[in-house]
Amino acid sequence: MSIWSNIAGAAQSLGSSVGDFFAGFSGKSSVPEKSVAFTIGMIALGAKMAKADGVVTKDEVLAFKQVFHVPEKDMAAVQRVFDLAKQDIAGFESYAEQVARLFVPKSSVLENVLDGLFHIAKADHAIHERELEYLEAVGVIFGFKGEEFARIRARHVSIAEDPYDVLGVTRGASADEIKKHYRKLARDLHPDRQIAEGVPEEMVELASNRLARINVAYEQVMKGLPA
Q: From the CB of residue 222, how many other CB atoms can be counted at a distance below 10 Å?
């Protein structure tokens, strides 16, 4: 059964709060239930992201759909979760904390979640101050602080994308250090690894897109190193 079918079935039991429903799933340990909890949490964070600057635009809703690739038959149920989370009195921190508890701190999955939220924030061609504050706060909850969050932010707000920022290495790193870091990223972002960590198959594309950009950045960085 598709994760979206699970969400569609779960949405029928939603009351007026996504938070209480989400909490009921987040303590489960099996992969399918973990995936439902993760997906509901991501929907809620996406809704809160869209609302961060005070207005949810059509572009932000479209960006949300681009991140999730929801089948048309399940869209109404996902939209219900999105709309409830958007107006839920629960703060985004509670959703971020429950998503974070599903994975180890600074997991590649959590980094992909931040990438998805940045994608929604950029939907209107600008990241507003309150949106950036929201993203940074979620980053801290996920374990990405200071320079680590700045590295993620640089992938999305830089005028010209720096391959070193995309790869997450310093300009003084040796070729061996860069290769070791790249290989770890490639392992962590492999679709099979993502699914094993509980990420729904339908959302693995976030990791695949990031890995494609990392591959290009790696080639650019290695070409620029002394022979």
A: 14
- Which of 179, 184, 176, 153 is closest to 166 using CA atoms? 153
Per-residue pLDDT reduced to its tens digit, 40-52: 777 888 888 877 7
* Cβ-based neighbour number of residue 9 at 10 Å: 13
Q: What confidence tens digit (pLDDT) does each residue in 132-181 have?
A: 899 999 999 999 998 889 888 887 875 456 888 888 888 888 999 999 99
Residue 6: closest CA among 51, 97, 70: 70
Residue 226: what residue type? P
User: What is the token pair recorded at 90?
Assistant: 């629960």
**Locus of tokens 């300009």:** 171
Contact assessment for residue 32 and residue 23, using Cβ atoms and an 8 Å cutoff: no
Q: CA separation (Å) from 180 to 64, 92, 168, 224?
A: 34, 35, 12, 17
Give pLDDT tens digits for 204-221: 777 788 888 889 989 999
Residue of 36, 38, 173, 166 lying closest to 113 (CA atoms): 38
Confidence of residue 84 (pLDDT cuts 50, 70, 90): confident
Instruction: List, as own/partner pairs, every contact residues 96-99 make where C-beta atoms lie below 8 angstroms and the sequence separation is at least 24, other chains included.
Output: 96/41, 96/45, 96/137, 96/138, 96/141, 96/142, 97/141, 98/22, 98/23, 98/26, 98/37, 98/41, 99/37, 99/38, 99/41, 99/42, 99/45, 99/142
